[in-house]
Amino acid sequence: SVALELSSISKSYDGRRDAVKSVSLEVNHGEFLVLLGPSGSGKSTILRSIAGIERIASGRIDIFGKTVASTTMHTPPEARGISMVFQDYALWPHMSVLDNVAFALKRNKVDSKTRAIKAQETLSRVGLGDKGARFPSELSGGEQQRVALARALVGHSGLILFDEPLSNLDADLRERLRIEIATLTRESGATAVYITHDQSEAFALADKVGVLSRGELVQIGAPEDIYLSP
Ligand code: ADP
Ligand code: ADP
């Protein structure tokens, strides 16, 4: 079944040129979509529109069968049931690593002990089982990114949006975390939309790749069906 549907969405910032031009696509339940394109091709505008941080000018966005945005309506981000992973982690500096992850479970109405147990389990899965008591500033960049990933994944089987989460990390770590992201996201049953300008990252992660050029979706399909000119 379809988890996310974009129907001909468009957006311009200055009225001159469309940042996103009539983009339509579908992502099925449990599918991992990567949007690939150079800087300025419209990736983050699409991601922010799905998140509800940005308003679309026209078209429609449906998440799990519910319209969240159209030309005339706009549901706020917190009502869309999604979580996001950014390149700058956006961890809460005044909370321990464990609390950062556990806090994401607050809206699930589980008691604090259960939250702590689930958070601890998820931290262990990203290799940070012994770092729960630390504060984010005491961790390396790669470790902080894993905390952000754990926070997005804990108790979440909805839609997860990834905004170039690995672009600030060194090549080695990028490759290792790439595998973790793919594995953990699939295990959790979540549906993912991941944006990047890195071709090898896109092809390593994706069930489906969408290629953007100047705000238009120029190709979409299984990685083996995508052709990129050199
Ligand atoms: P990225 O390539 O990672 O999307 P950008 O450099 O395009 O990063 O954008 C960084 C920030 O600057 C974003 O928050 C974006 O909204 C904003 N931005 C990008 N282009 C413009 C622009 N032409 N005018 C104003 N803000 C912009
Ligand atoms: P990408 O994520 O692929 O780098 P963006 O969605 O950030 O692309 O940008 C698409 C286009 O919209 C670019 O031309 C960019 O300069 C412009 N843009 C993005 N954010 C803003 C903004 N806040 N204000 C004005 N123009 C923007």
From TrEMBL:
Residues 4-230 form the ABC transporter domain. GO terms for molecular function: ABC-type ferric iron transporter activity; ATP binding; ATP hydrolysis activity. GO terms for cellular component: ATP-binding cassette (ABC) transporter complex, substrate-binding subunit-containing. Its EC number is 3.6.3.31. Keywords: ATP-binding, Cell membrane, Hydrolase, Membrane, Nucleotide-binding, Translocase, Transport. This is Spermidine/putrescine import ATP-binding protein PotA. The gene is potA. The chain holds residues 14 to 243 of 394 of the full protein.
